[in-house]
Amino acid sequence: MLLLSGIGPAEDLQRLGIPVVVNLPGVGRNLQDHVLLAGIQYEVQGDLPAPKNNGGESTMWWKSDPKLLCPDIQSVIAEFPFATLELADQVPPNCYTLAPGLVRPASRGQVKLTSSEPTADLEIDMNYLGRDADVQALLLAIDMCRDMGASAAFKEWRKREVMPGKRDKAGMLEFLRMSTSSFFHPTSTCKMGSDDMAVVDPQLRVYGVSGLRVADASIMPTVTTGNTNAPAVLIGEKAAEIMLS
Ligand SMILES: Cc1cc2nc3c(=O)[nH]c(=O)nc-3n(C[C@H](O)[C@H](O)[C@H](O)COP(=O)(O)OP(=O)(O)OC[C@H]3O[C@@H](n4cnc5c(N)ncnc54)[C@H](O)[C@@H]3O)c2cc1C
Known about the structure:
By secondary structure, the protein is α+β, with helices and mostly antiparallel strands. It has helices spanning 10-15, 132-149, 169-179, 229-244; strands at 7-8, 22-23, 35-37, 40-44, 59-62, 73-78, 95-99, 101-102, 110-113, 122-125, 158-163, 180-182. The model has no long low-confidence stretch (mean pLDDT 96).
């Protein structure tokens, strides 16, 4: 909506014939998402029981490198087969999944308009795995999930590991790329801050215009280290508090 209103990177707007109201180069940039791999598949002994509640009730945070200040890995269990379209035909129906996730991604994507028409499709480049650091962290997360999946604690459930199975480094990298999926937590395309790429100030006011604020997950300078719904609600509550005061 900002881009269509002429608030964004001037060059991009001019190319589409949109009159520039404010040249704000950060609008649509800095796109971040948590990456979720779908996933390490285990065939169950006997029948797969029906999932309880949401079918994914356990999650864990871990560090791919002990020197990190906060965890960068968030893995989840899915009490059902969870695979990308590319891999789904290799997965039997009686599988559960350990899904490695990355919650401190280094990669940044972007959202662009393709036309000045509001109904036209957007160009969304998630740029997942765009930085090698993300690939390396996820390779470690795969190892971690496979260690857990092979542990004695899962013995009574596990019949066999269906995927990825034993692979060399190149094979594991291929599995990583084929299984890459979204955690559904895209944020940060209107980041709050005070540098040249910031879109809103600490009061959530859009730079360069008056009477306009953004209050949603897009203002996060970096995506949170966990699911984004509660933080999005918090941003809304904070915006209400700022405006009332
Ligand atoms: C499939 C899925 C599963 C998820 N699961 C979880 C989870 O388990 N836990 C968790 O914490 N988070 C989860 N999330 C993430 C969470 O839902 C989002 O981070 C959160 O909703 C972001 O809030 P928001 O206000 O920024 O955006 P949204 O909630 O997307 O709100 C944007 C609003 O703007 C409206 N809108 C869009 N365009 C226009 C327009 N042109 N004019 C007027 N209105 C417009 C939309 O209709 C929508 O109501 C999930 C997301 C998805 C998609």
